[in-house]
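name: query_chain
kind: protein
chains: 1
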Amino acid sequence: MARELLTQIVQDPSRGFTRRPDLTVRHPDLVLALDAHADDHIRARMYGPAAPPSATEHALRLNVKPAAVTAAAAHLRALWKRELVDFQPVDGRGIPVGGRPYFPYATCPDLTAEPREELRGILDELARQGSHLLYGELLGDGGQGTRRFGEILTGALSREEPLRIRVDSDLVLPWPMLALPEDTASGPGGPVGDAFRRFLGYRHQIEQTGGHHPSLPDPADDEHARLPPPLPVVSLNHDQGIDPEGATRAGEVESALATGTVRVERTRCDELLGALRSGALEEQLMYFWCHGHFRPVADDSAPLFAVRLSDHKDIDVRTVLTERGVAEPPLPRRPLVFLNACYAGLPADAEPARLGGALIEAGAGGVLGPQIEMPRLFAAEYAHAYITRYLGGRETAGEIVHGLARHFADVWSNPLGLAYALQCGMDSRLERATVGPP
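structure:
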């Protein structure tokens, strides 16, 4: 006697013909998770293929106050500004040295003509302080478990092959500017090259989440997932009052953004907010060339980082969160956002990554920006190199950041490329439409 059998559909093969293929997610080689607990201690965990096998998780409690680590990070950023960007060569009597620019390391991106020993001294101090932040402040509680954790971490970070590293933490530190101990990073490169090899951003690809994990749908079930547009869609969001005399490569950056793309240009806050509010912002790359500043808030909490376009109206974390909407992500193509915004000074309690975090929560795939007040000349050089490579669509954001840090260090002896950091987005890549045979 025939009877109906119970069936259960466990796979729908036809979906592969009607939806985009699932995106491939690569796990990082090393994940370092740092969870701040009530400004009392930090819980640290480490895992990934680059971590040595263990019967238990590599984890421990760090008896260090998160606020102390954050303050040390602000000190390191200020040190880079004071000792490198604001360096003034003077003689034994304190008189400026003749024949050299007043601020040589800020006014010329190519530092190969600067005195080798002088530059090496600056790099050694920056590396020493970067190492102290990692091993003295963060991992410096002196316990046996902490020492062992530090040894395991150093073993991974000192590898010759570049790793893809994710720092998953709401404790945002300038990780590319941190450094290995002096005796663990020796190698070829001469009197300046050895110093560069100590910095983590020179050795590895690094992204930090800032503790932001936006709720995004599965790519295969995402109704907003669409094929790439015929031409890449990019935006230039800028203050036209920066560099009106054309002393930097900002004009060439604008041209690069307009070559083979659909470019959207914005110079006013309301234009950007309108795009965020509409939910139809289509950019794959959003570039900001503007000033930034830290604005105090009424409740005495950490100052808010804000950027300004030509109309000089603040765009901060609250502005973005207000406009993002709740029905759908306003950034459906998950763009990489390049905040090439410099700022004057960093308050000890400031949180410069909060604006980037708001953009990630709004749907951005990642945010790239400088960790210090960046000289205009170098900022424009970096932007031109980054944008031209990213628009090529062959390299990921992490590969380009790592490659440029090494390029500017090896070719121009300039460490400022290490001061750019990624907040998420290490594997972001600009997708281009593929044209099939006629």
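note: Residues 14-22 have pLDDT under 50 and may be disordered.
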